[in-house]
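User: My instructor asked us to take a sequence, write out its structure as tokens, and then describe one feature of it. I'm not sure where to start. Here is the sequence I was given:
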Amino acid sequence: MKFRFKATCCMITLMALFFGAGGSALISITFHTSLQQEKKTAQESYRMILNTLQIVNSMDEWTDEKDISKILEQLSAQDAFGAALQLHSETGIIYSKGTVALHLKDLSGKIDTSHLACTIFSAPDSRYYLQLSGAFFVGKEIYYLEAAYDISSIYEARTQQQELFQQIFIILIAACACFSYILAFFLTRPLARLSKASREIACGNYDYRSRIKSSDEVGAVSRDFDLMADHLQNSIEQLQHAMERQNLFIGNFTHELKTPMTSIIGYADLLRSQTLSKEDEVDAANYIFSEGRRLERLSLKLLDIFVSEHESFTLTKACAADIITSLVNHLKPVLAKEQITLECDCEDGYCMLDTDFFGSLLVNLIENARKALANGGSIAVRLAMTADGCTVTVTDNGSGIPETALAHITEAFYRVDKSRSRAQGGAGLGLTLCAEIAKMHHGTISFESKEQCGTTVTVNLKGGRA
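Assistant: Let's start with the prediction itself. The structure tokens for your sequence are:
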């Protein structure tokens, strides 16, 4: 059963319970109030008759039952006795008037001269009567006076009220059912939208949102649900991108392995199966050696990336300027042979670094800049201390990087010029390692480049100042 039907049934049940109980109580109270008022009026009329008989008896003692009957006849002429009046003694009935008198109950055992008896009975005519019985003495003999008063109008009024109440009750229940269902429909409609959003997302429509705009609890649940869906969609997109990058990585890695391994196997088989001249043997051995070294560099870069991603490090106090100066002095003679000048400008200060990976970061950035300087040029390394670490900038005036490639250059195995990179021994992992090292120092790496003008790489390391 849907929740809106449950809510409708609950409201109808509560309406029926409270309205039914309240209406029944009101009818019952009205009936008993009217009945008590009717009893009071009948008792006053009865006492008037009884007092009249006692006064007459005290003034002139009765000697004959005909005298009593005559007095009662006079009183009955005034219609004061109600529906029936009867006087009897222990010897028999003295006076009786009214057809209802035949149905009067004998209450003589429940009364005396100072107490009245009262009862309600129904006659064969389906009418209700109130019977009052009392006693008085005439001489030494006791007489019983009984009177009946028609109270059917009270019962008829109660019956009419009950019938009217039933009609009103049915109308109100029907109206309550319609109103309750409409109200429950509007109250539960946001839940239906939320349920639909859940099904849509479960079916793969991650863009679907409930978007319930209300300030109540349902609206709060909707906003939390949409926020959860946003995070879920982002996580799924990130997972898909990670899977794509992983597939690309595996494809590139396979390609990088296949090329040198094919060459190594081919030249090794050539050396094994054929007799070559001394010069050809040297060429084959040199090619096998160079391809083996390339595989070694590829393995070491992959190992460094893996270590930087999966191991925890403790940053220590270090002088970044000393590390940069020492490295630049070491590489200057090597780069000078390629007509490349290497300069550095470092600000003194200490910060928290992993010195080994910081050195690897510098080597890879300088090596990338060297590869962009095919016909010589200049490389400048600058260090600036910041409030939470340091900033390293490596600038070259080489061939530059196309704008479309800037967003991908930190991806594994990505190379702007694949033929030139492979000829220079590159595998497209250097900048990937640099990005991981920057992340390890809670920092970032960014690139600015213009083709044929040069590239500037800025690394912000935020490991902290010492």
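For the description part of your assignment, you could build on this observation: The chain has nine helices and twelve strands. Try explaining in your own words what that tells you about the chain.
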